[in-house]
């Protein structure tokens, strides 16, 4: 076993690809300044690996990877490269200043990719893997290999490709669901199969890289972890090609909240999740949907009276984790037309007023009228209602 494979049986590495796969998505590209800001947020999160870009993609991206490699200490800094010498050399140059560095090489292996895109036979692909993974490994101790579109690759060929990559010196084997096509049962079976059938499988860390085309990227990544994957590739706010990548905040909080089920840990400082999510929204000018799991405005907000009553009595009635644990200031009780008297009374008290039951009943009648006419009743509205100002003046 390599030392990285040995690190800890139950530690799942978080490989963040916000700055590579994430920024490849239309509307999310970032310049060097924006990437640096985001890379610092990823360092604060304590991710294991930052995939900082694709050095061969453009001079600007190579410069961004280099800047991150120079300035951001802690995580391993990685650049993507196609399985070609010029790409690998560009990646090596870009990550050179980093204390801890990784090259991530990939080549398509499914019939569609071999025939329609690469025009390469299986033998030609195997030869390239052997030659170019070795080329990368000669210059860098930490080499990740990805058979692109692994999910739609014939299993026997996939084993041959993985074996060739291990023999040539790959230290992490990433198995991408490039088009978000798989299901939790299928990927569990695939990872179990590869770990059982690839020669020297115990020399490498297996990694999952799931896309969200069918909305299953997080579920599929978690299934891969249950089958022995010890690295998950993910992106803040789930950004990435098309429908995106596995969302970092969702997979990390699933592993943390359901530790009883998964039995593994990550080294993420979960209290930095919300700040990182906000930073990404700011630097890419893409707002976070209200209902986004973990980081959306509604993730810890309650408007319905029955829920508010429960949460005010014991927040575990409707919250499986604390807002503070992901770095949000607190949960919130939103006053609207679905809210009940308990929530209104609590807000009135929180605003420093004392009202008796009869007065509360009167205010509640006016509150409902106002709530019907507006989306959200604000604290200023509540103060006006307590002061006796009705909607009609
Ligand atoms: O989705 C994918 O296959 C990729 C590879 C480059 C790892 O992003
Ligand atoms: Zn991808």
Task: Give the key terms.
single chain; 393 residues; alpha/beta; eight-stranded parallel β-barrel; two-stranded parallel ribbon; 10 strands; disordered N terminus; binds 3-methyl-2-oxobutanoic acid; binds zinc ion
Write the layout of secondary structure elements.
Elements: H1 3-6, E1 13-16, H2 18-24, H3 32-45, E2 49-53, H4 59-71, E3 76-82, H5 85-95, E4 101-108, H6 111-118, H7 122-139, E5 143-148, H8 155-168, E6 172-177, H9 184-197, E7 205-210, H10 217-226, E8 231-234, H11 248-257, H12 259-262, H13 273-284, E9 301-302, H14 305-313, E10 332-333, H15 341-350, H16 357-373, H17 379-386
Parallel strand pairs: 1-2, 1-8, 2-3, 3-4, 4-5, 5-6, 6-7, 7-8, 9-10
**Global Rg:** 25 Å
Helix-strand makeup class: alpha/beta
Oligomeric state of the chains present here: single chain
Mean pLDDT score: 96
Strand order of the largest sheet: 1-2-3-4-5-6-7-8
Q: What string, H for helix and E for strand, traces the elements in order?
A: HEHHEHEHEHHEHEHEHEHHHEHEHHH
Give the proportion of residues in helices.
40-55%
Bound molecules: 3-methyl-2-oxobutanoic acid, zinc ion
Overall 3D shape = elongated
Biggest pleated sheet: 8 strands, parallel, barrel
Low-confidence stretches: 1-8
Helix tally equals 17
The overall strand count is: 10
The proportion of strand residues reads: 5-15%
Calculate the terminal CA-CA distance, rounded to whole Å.
Answer: 76 Å
Protein name: 2-isopropylmalate synthase
Organism: Amphiplicatus metriothermophilus
Family: Belongs to the alpha-IPM synthase/homocitrate synthase family. LeuA type 1 subfamily.
GO molecular function: 2-isopropylmalate synthase activity; metal ion binding
């Amino acid at each position: 076993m390599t030392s990285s494979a040995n690190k800890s049986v139950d530690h799942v590495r978080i490989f963040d690809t916000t700055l590579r796969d994430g920024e490849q998505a239309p509307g999310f590209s970032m310049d060097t300044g924006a990437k640096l800001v985001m890379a610092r947020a990823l360092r604060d999160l304590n991710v294991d690996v930052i995939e900082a870009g694709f050095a061969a993609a453009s001079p600007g991206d190579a410069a961004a990877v280099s800047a991150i490699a120079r300035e951001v200490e802690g995580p391993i800094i990685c650049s993507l490269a196609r399985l070609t010498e010029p790409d690998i050399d560009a990646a090596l140059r870009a990550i050179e200043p980093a204390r801890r560095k990784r090259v991530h090489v990939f080549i398509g292996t499914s019939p569609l990719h071999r025939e329609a895109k690469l025009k390469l036979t299986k033998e030609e692909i195997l030869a390239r893997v052997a030659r170019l993974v070795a080329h990368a490994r000669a210059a860098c101790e930490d080499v990740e290999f990805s058979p692109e579109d692994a999910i739609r690759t014939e299993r026997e060929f996939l084993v041959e490709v993985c074996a060739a990559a291990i023999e040539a010196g790959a230290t992490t084997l990433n198995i991408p669901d490039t088009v978000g096509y798989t299901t939790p049962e299928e990927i569990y079976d695939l990872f179990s199969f590869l770990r059982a059938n690839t020669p020297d499988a115990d020399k490498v860390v297996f990694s999952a890289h799931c896309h969200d085309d069918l909305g299953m990227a997080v579920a599929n990544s978690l299934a891969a972890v249950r089958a022995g994957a010890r690295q998950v590739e993910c992106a803040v706010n789930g950004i990435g090609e098309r429908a995106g990548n596995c969302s970092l905040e969702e997979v990390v909080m699933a592993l943390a909240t359901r530790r009883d089920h998964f039995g593994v840990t990550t080294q993420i400082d979960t209290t930095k999740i919300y700040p990182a999510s906000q930073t990404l929204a700011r630097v890419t000018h893409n707002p976070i949907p209200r209902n986004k799991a973990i980081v959306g405005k509604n993730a810890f907000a309650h408007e319905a009276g029955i829920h508010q009553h429960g949460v005010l009595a014991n927040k575990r009635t409707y919250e499986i984790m604390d807002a503070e644990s992901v770095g949000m200031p607190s949960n919130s009780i939103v006053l609207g037309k679905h809210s009940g008297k308990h929530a209104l009374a609590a807000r009135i008290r929180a605003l420093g007023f004392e009202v008796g039951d009869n007065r509360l009943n009167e205010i509640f009648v006016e509150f409902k009228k106002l709530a019907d006419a507006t989306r959200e009743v604000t604290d200023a509205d509540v103060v006006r209602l307590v002061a006796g100002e009705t909607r009609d003046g």
